[in-house]
């Protein structure tokens, strides 16, 4: 029996290693490509014959990544912050007060998740032009926030329903605290784990947004990383080393964030879905 | 009877164990969700409804004039051979990705639910692509599939085979898009299935072992039914995600050759921006919303019915 167990363990470990190696292929190609010389036409599988870190500097300047990083960071931080405030505030009554109106509004928020954002694009574009908000950080923040509010409310409401004891709020109410005070003093601090999840999920997806950015941020001064990369790729089809370097730099912040906060990311995704 | 209960409740309340229940009309506290509601109304609901209106006009997207043309755009849509091509692709991306992500995601979750070495490293690596922009993911796989100097062709040539132009072949490239989307997001399905597996009580399996159930019987009669909530959420998430695929298509094929790998999103994009055909783009948008709605509701209804109470 013991022997059989050990053999199955070894078998499944081997399978896991094969799967892992397969999933690493694109990363291997990306990293080796980024380090090769411009005139290195060796196979994508080959290691670079000499390492060219200067590709990163060149790509950074040529694709104006500095500017793009700042724009992306402003938009991501702004939208994530507003998502947390508006989202948690909205989720609280929707999770707690079971009135007919609230049930309808909750359903509405969930139903919006099904609407493909691009379906609203044509009139939205016109509206943004008319409001004079084209090529502003504000419009990118608002669009991204609107797109992620339903998911945020869904996650917060599920968390409040399943983990926050009502008694705490009732006790505070008896002490005469106002609803807003109860929310910010008692409920919101207890939401920390799910706030971390919302923060990570929304940051990752807003950082990577291309759909909204390409429509509403065409001006070079406000362009985000994805738009800068797309432009850079278009001009450098023959110089993929630089494209690879730029791509690595653009994904570094979220990769680091993910590796540190993995725990929350995974916990939030799974708890929200399986319990909800 | 109820009086008795009330009495005992009051008695307990008196001792300070349970507070008496106040029968009060519940407040909606609607002002707390008002800001969120305004944001989604202005940036999603209103433009969406307005899009339906625009789909009945010949608007070019920029001028102030637009003419009401009734069902003209809808007629045009149903006669346009591109519509069918694009709908077919969109369904392939939506349904194909959903099937692959769920089957492979479940297999990965079953693997990682076993006691193996390097478990968390494997999980992290499978999950890592989720956080990378689909656009960048498209470029990375472009390096792999490209005709000139692509990694795939190097392997083919190593075996003495001919190079293939996978991205330029309209029969193949929609499948490559499905593959890349699956590679990128299979991690989400895996994580959700893993959480589902870990919430299944060991008692069920022990009882089945006593009855002498086979591995397959245990999977079919215990694991699968108890995973139904996870399957529901995964299928619905993947269908919605797959049907609105956009960035990765632009990065890999640009929708081409011709319209061969175009999805409804990329098709709408080109109608609006390259061809100034906003009315028609809106009509395609209405069709897209309709298809997404139908498929997500069908999936939801089908899998919800199969859920059991554990």
How many separate domains make up the residues of chain A? 2
- Percentage of helical residues of chain B? 55-70%
The number of distinct β-strands of chain B equals 0
Question: What is the 3D shape of chain A?
Answer: globular
Number of helices of chain B: 14
**How many alpha or pi helices of chain A?**
12
Q: Measured on Cα atoms, how large is the radius of gyration of chain B?
A: 26 Å
Global shape of chain B: globular
Runs of chain B in which pLDDT lies below 50 for 5 or more consecutive residues are 1-5
**CATH architecture title of the largest domain in chain A:** Orthogonal Bundle
Low-pLDDT windows of residues of chain A: none
Largest sheet of chain A: none
Mean pLDDT over the full residue set of chain A: 89
Strand content of chain A: under 5%
Mind describing the biggest β-sheet of chain B? none
Distance between the termini of chain B: 33 Å
Q: What class would the helix/strand composition of chain A place it in?
A: mainly alpha
Distance between the termini of chain A: 40 Å
Helix content of chain A: over 70%
Round the Cα radius of gyration of chain A to an integer and report it. 23 Å
Main location (chain B): membrane
Family (chain B): Belongs to the binding-protein-dependent transport system permease family.
Subcellular location (chain B): Cell membrane
Membrane topology (chain B): Multi-pass membrane protein
Structure summarized in a few sentences:
Chain B: It holds the Pfam family BPD_transp_1. The complex is a heterodimer of chains A (276) and B (310). By secondary structure, chain A is an all-alpha fold.
Describe the structure.
The complex is a heterodimer of chains A (276) and B (310). Chain A has helices at 2-35, 54-62, 65-96, 100-112, 121-130, 137-163, 166-174, 179-190, 192-207, 211-216, 225-235, 240-275. Chain A has 276 residues and is mostly helical. Chain A folds into two domains: 1-52, no CATH class; 59-270, MetI-like (MetI-like fold, Orthogonal Bundle), CATH 1.10.3720.10. In chain A, helix 6 runs antiparallel to helix 9, helix 6 (137-163) runs parallel beside helix 12 and helix 7 (166-174) runs antiparallel to helix 8 (179-190). Chain A is globular and about 75 Å long. In chain A, 46% of the residues are buried. Chain B is mostly helical. The longest helix of chain B has 32 residues, at 81-112. In chain B, helix 13 runs antiparallel to helix 14. The chains are: A mainly alpha (276), B mainly alpha (310). At the A-B interface, helix 1, helix 3, helix 4, helix 5 and helix 6 of A face helix 2, helix 4, helix 5, helix 6 and helix 7 of B.
């Amino acid at each position: 029996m013991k022997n059989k167990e050990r053999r199955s363990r070894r078998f499944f470990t081997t399978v896991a290693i094969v799967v892992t190696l397969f999933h690493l292929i694109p990363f291997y190609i990306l990293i080796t490509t980024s380090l090769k010389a411009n005139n290195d036409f060796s196979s994508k599988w080959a290691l670079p014959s000499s390492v060219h870190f200067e590709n990163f500097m060149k790509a950074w300047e040529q694709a104006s990544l500095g500017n793009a990083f700042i724009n992306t960071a402003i938009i991501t931080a702004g939208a994530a912050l507003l998502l947390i405030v508006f989202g948690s505030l909205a989720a609280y009554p929707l999770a707690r007060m079971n009135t007919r109106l609230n049930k309808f509004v909750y359903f509405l928020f969930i139903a919006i998740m099904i609407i493909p954002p691009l379906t609203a694009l044509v009139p939205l574009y016109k509206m943004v032009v008319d409001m004079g908000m084209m090529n502003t950080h504000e419009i990118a923040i608002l669009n991204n926030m609107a797109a992620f509010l339903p998911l945020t409310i869904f996650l917060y409401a599920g968390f409040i329903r399943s983990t926050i004891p009502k008694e705490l709020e009732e006790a505070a109410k008896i002490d005469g605290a106002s609803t807003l005070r109860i929310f910010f003093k008692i409920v919101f601090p207890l939401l920390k784990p799910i706030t971390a999840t919302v923060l990570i999920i929304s940051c990752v997806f807003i950082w990577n947004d291309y759909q909204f950015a390409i429509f509403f941020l065409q001006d070079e001064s406000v362009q985000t990383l994805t738009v800068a990369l797309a432009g850079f790729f278009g001009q450098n089809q023959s110089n993929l080393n630089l494209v690879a370097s730029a791509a690595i730099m653009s994904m570094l912040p979220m990769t680091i964030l993910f590796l540190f906060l993995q725990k929350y990311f995974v916990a939030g995704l799974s708890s929200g879905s399986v319990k909800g | 009877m109820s009086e008795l209960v009330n009495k005992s409740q009051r008695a307990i309340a008196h001792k300070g164990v349970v507070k008496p229940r106040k029968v009060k009309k519940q407040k909606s506290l609607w002002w707390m969700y008002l800001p969120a509601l305004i944001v989604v109304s202005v940036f999603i609901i209103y433009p969406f409804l307005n899009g339906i209106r625009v789909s009945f006009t010949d608007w070019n997207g920029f001028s102030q004039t637009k003419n009401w043309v009734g069902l003209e755009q809808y007629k045009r849509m149903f006669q346009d051979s591109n519509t069918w091509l694009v709908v077919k692709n969109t369904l392939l991306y939506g349904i194909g990705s959903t099937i692959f992500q769920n089957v492979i995601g479940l297999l990965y979750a079953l693997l990682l639910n076993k006691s193996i070495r390097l478990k968390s490293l494997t999980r992290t690596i499978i999950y890592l692509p989720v956080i990378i922009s689909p656009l960048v993911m498209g470029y990375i796989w472009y390096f792999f599939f490209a005709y000139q100097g692509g990694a795939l062709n190097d392997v083919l040539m190593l075996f003495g085979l001919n190079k293939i132009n996978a991205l330029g072949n309209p029969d193949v490239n929609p499948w490559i898009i499905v593959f890349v989307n699956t590679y990128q997001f299979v991690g989400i399905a895996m994580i959700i299935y893993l959480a589902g597996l870990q919430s299944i009580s060991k008692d069920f399996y022990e009882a089945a072992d006593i009855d002498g159930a086979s591995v397959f019987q245990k999977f079919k009669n215990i694991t699968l039914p108890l995973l139904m909530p996870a399957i529901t959420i995964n299928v619905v998430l993947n269908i919605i995600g797959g049907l609105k695929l956009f960035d990765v298509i632009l990065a890999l094929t640009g929708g081409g050759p011709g319209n061969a790998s175009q999805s409804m999103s990329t098709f709408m994009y080109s109608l609006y921006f390259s061809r100034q055909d906003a009315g028609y783009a809106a009509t395609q948008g209405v069709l897209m919303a309709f298809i997404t709605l139908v498929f997500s509701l069908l999936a939801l209804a089908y899998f919800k019915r199969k859920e059991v109470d554990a």
